[in-house]
């Protein structure tokens, strides 16, 4: 007698539970075809899940290319953002972290080390780091390695990308909005010191075009606030010579020469010791000043208005996630940071005998020395 009771056909997809399908050679042909299609679809869904879900694959290696320690909070936000997205260091993600390059000339060499390690992706913090990574991947014929930049000044102006809509290459990421920040900083300076007429700046021969871009933007908006920009020339923009020049300049500036100081971005501004010379000068002259970073305000600067670096880092993580899921960098538009932060040092305000308007205190995100 032929056994017509159905037997069980077991199909196991990946690590999921077994799926039992009744099977019998006397089943109608249409039913058998239907079961075959169901099995095929299940397998395809699983394979598709593996393809688009980086969390289901082997650990990816991310190179983190760092420029200056002053932007450490961007790194902090990035690692937090990656963890929030489900990436666990040592499990499904691995980080190769470079030392701080500290000079534009060193960044390409550090980036080349990451390329030689065959990383899956490079996160480059600042446009200086991104430029080094771009040059390294191009020189090595490895433009297949995606580069996600964070806190990059005007990437379209500096040549990192063709446009914000589409980079046209292997880069994308989070940019710095210098136009918005420059005008807003000058507005805040004017609100703190309504009578100010002369605003001093360090005028360097910037190897980073973003510094010159910010300077040009400041010159453009200054007449709207009735102020004159006073430039103090720095021939060298990095190294001990730059520091020596800044030390000499800040010592020579006398009371009445300027009413406030505007600390511009660029390599000359990055070293903490250079920023400290300007901080000390503004406190000696008892004038208001706007700085680039939260850390500079913590060390005695009056205030800073800048993109929230932790938020920038978390935003950068979303770009990395998109690329690891199969999206091309050129198809992911460049974004500006989602949040700006106003930091005011009230201890400094008291020391230089300046009263911060209530309107600014009400919108300040961080108040130091309350």
Automatic annotation (TrEMBL):
It holds the Pfam family ABC_sub_bind. Keywords: Membrane, Transmembrane, Transmembrane helix. The chain crosses the membrane at residues 34-52. InterPro entries: ABC_transpt-TYRBP-like, Peripla_BP_I. PANTHER family: ABC TRANSPORTER, SUBSTRATE-BINDING LIPOPROTEIN (PTHR35271:SF1), ABC TRANSPORTER, SUBSTRATE-BINDING LIPOPROTEIN-RELATED (PTHR35271). This is ABC transporter substrate-binding protein. The lineage of its organism: Bacteria, Candidatus Zambryskiibacteriota.
């Amino acid at each position: 007698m032929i056994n017509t009771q159905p037997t069980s056909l077991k199909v196991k997809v990946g690590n999921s539970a077994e799926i039992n399908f009744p099977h019998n050679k006397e089943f109608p042909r249409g039913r058998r075809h239907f079961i075959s299609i169901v099995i095929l679809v299940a397998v395809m869904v699983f394979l598709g899940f593996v393809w688009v879900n980086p969390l289901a694959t082997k650990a990816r290696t991310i190179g983190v290319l760092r420029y200056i320690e002053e932007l450490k909070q961007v790194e902090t936000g990035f690692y937090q953002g990656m963890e929030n997205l489900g990436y666990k260091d040592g499990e499904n993600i691995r980080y190769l972290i470079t030392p701080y390059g500290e000079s534009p000339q060193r960044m390409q060499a550090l980036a080349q080390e990451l390329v030689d390690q065959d990383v899956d992706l490079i996160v480059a913090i600042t446009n200086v780091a991104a430029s080094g990574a771009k040059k390294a991947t191009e020189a090595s014929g490895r433009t297949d390695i995606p580069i996600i930049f964070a806190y990059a000044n005007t990437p379209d102006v500096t040549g990192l990308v063709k446009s914000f809509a589409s980079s046209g290459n292997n880069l994308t990421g989070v940019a710095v909005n210098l136009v918005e920040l420059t005008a807003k900083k000058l507005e805040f300076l004017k609100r703190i010191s309504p009578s100010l007429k002369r605003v001093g700046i360090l005028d360097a021969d910037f190897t980073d075009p973003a510094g010159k871009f910010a300077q040009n933007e400041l010159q453009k908006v200054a007449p709207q606030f009735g102020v004159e920009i006073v430039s103090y020339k720095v021939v060298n923009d990095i190294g001990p010579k730059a520091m020596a020049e800044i030390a000499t300049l800040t010592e020579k500036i006398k009371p009445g020469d300027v009413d406030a100081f505007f600390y511009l971005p660029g390599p000359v501004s990055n070293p903490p010791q250079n920023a400290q010379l300007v901080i000390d000068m503004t406190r000696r002259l008892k004038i208001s000043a706007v700085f680039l970073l939260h850390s500079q305000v913590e060390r005695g600067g009056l205030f800073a208005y800048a993109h929230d670096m932790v938020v920038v880092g978390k935003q950068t993580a979303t770009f990395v996630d998109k690329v690891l899921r199969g999206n091309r960098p050129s198809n992911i538009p460049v974004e500006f940071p989602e949040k700006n932060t106003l930091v005011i040092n009230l201890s400094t305000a008291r020391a230089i005998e300046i009263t911060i308007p209530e309107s600014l205190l009400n919108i300040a995100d961080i108040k130091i020395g309350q």
